[in-house]
């Protein structure tokens, strides 16, 4: 336990991809920050990279939820096939620049790492500097739907195809790592649409390689009520936020690591309960 004269623990937060389901990360973050938890480093990919960047810029989770519901940000990330078979994701760039105009990793209030895949080299890349907007879009660039993002003559696509839960950049840099994962796989008895089938196939693949990443976390928060939402169900953002918030509160009440951490971060409240 640290005292007010000692340095607080460095707390890392890993955010998975998951399309609109990643709005649950905002609810989780809201619950944790409401209880005094602050983050020194956030790592994310795909929609988790968007959540990381906006929170690191200083937007509260509820403020960012309002941005999502009032703008076309996530709708602009929804595939719409053109006559060439691929569309550009760059049409979302102007919105990112509106809300994060400095466009710089270094000027964010919290350090972030964004995972994307170098499509030409076939390898995962962790970004901590460069043009923030292009790297966010690269991390969200679904291959086969969107044209790859070109950065320094390399093609980049969604980091989730190789690591949808990028905990690794936090290891060794944080005293405690909290992971928020939004792709819990529920049991089903039927598939209602082609889109649902593709989404479920992707979730099965993601969950199959999840365990090594989970083991790197001290705390995992994984809302179980998101299985009914597709990654492009943009109208459900507020519902998904509340699911994440409730799951965050549940973890705070039941997880011993979180309970001890919050007690250490709020010594006055702890003494007041004695």
General description of the model:
This protein is of the alpha/beta class and 274 residues long. Helices cover 38% and strands 14% of the residues. It contains 11 helices and 8 strands. Strands 1, 2, 3, 4, 5, 6, 7 and 8 form an 8-stranded mixed β-sheet that branches. Strand 5 and strand 6 form a beta hairpin. Helix 1 (23-34) runs antiparallel to helix 3, helix 1 crosses helix 9 (237-254) and helix 9 (237-254) crosses helix 10 (256-265). It is globular and about 50 Å long.
**Proportion in β-strands:** 5-15%
Specify the helix fraction band.
Answer: 25-40%
How many alpha or pi helices? 11
Outline type? globular
In short:
InterPro entries: Acyl_Trfase/lysoPLipase (IPR016035), NTE (IPR050301), PNPLA_dom (IPR002641). The protein has 274 residues and is an alpha/beta fold.
Overview features:
38% helix; globular
Topology, please?
Layout: E1 11-15, H1 23-34, E2 41-45, H2 47-57, H3 61-70, H4 73-76, H5 93-99, E3 111-118, E4 123-127, H6 132-139, E5 149-151, E6 154-158, E7 176-180, H7 194-208, H8 211-214, E8 219-221, H9 237-254, H10 256-265, H11 267-272
Parallel strand pairs: 1-2, 1-7, 2-3, 7-8
Antiparallel strand pairs: 3-4, 3-6, 5-6
Helix pairs in contact: 1-3, 1-9, 9-10
């Amino acid at each position: 336990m640290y005292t007010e004269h000692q340095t607080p623990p460095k707390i890392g937060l890993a955010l998975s991809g998951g399309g609109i389901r990643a709005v649950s990360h905002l609810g989780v973050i809201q619950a944790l920050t409401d209880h005094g938890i602050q983050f020194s480093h956030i790592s994310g990919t795909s929609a988790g990279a968007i959540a990381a960047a906006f929170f690191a810029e200083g937007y509260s989770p509820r403020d960012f939820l309002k941005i999502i519901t009032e703008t076309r940000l996530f709708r602009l990330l929804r595939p719409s096939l053109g006559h060439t078979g691929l569309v550009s994701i760059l049409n979302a760039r102007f919105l990112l620049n509106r809300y994060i105009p400095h466009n710089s990793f270094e000027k964010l209030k919290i350090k972030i790492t964004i995972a994307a895949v170098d499509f030409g080299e076939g390898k995962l890349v962790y970004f901590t500097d460069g043009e923030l907007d292009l790297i966010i879009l690269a991390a969200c660039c679904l291959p086969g739907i969107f044209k790859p993002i070109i950065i320094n003559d390399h093609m980049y696509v969604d980091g989730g195809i190789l690591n949808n839960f990028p905990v690794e950049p936090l290891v060794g840099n944080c005293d405690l790592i909290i992971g928020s994962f939004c792709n819990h796989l529920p049991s089903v008895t039927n598939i209602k649409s082609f889109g649902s089938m593709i989404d479920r196939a992707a979730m099965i693949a993601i969950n199959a390689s999840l365990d090594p990443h989970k083991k790197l976390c001290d705390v995992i928060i994984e809302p179980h009520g998101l299985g009914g939402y597709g990654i492009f169900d943009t109208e459900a953002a507020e519902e998904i936020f509340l699911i994440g918030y409730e799951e965050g509160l549940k973890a705070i009440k039941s997880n011993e690591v979180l309970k001890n951490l919050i007690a250490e971060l709020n010594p006055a409240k702890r003494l007041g309960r004695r």
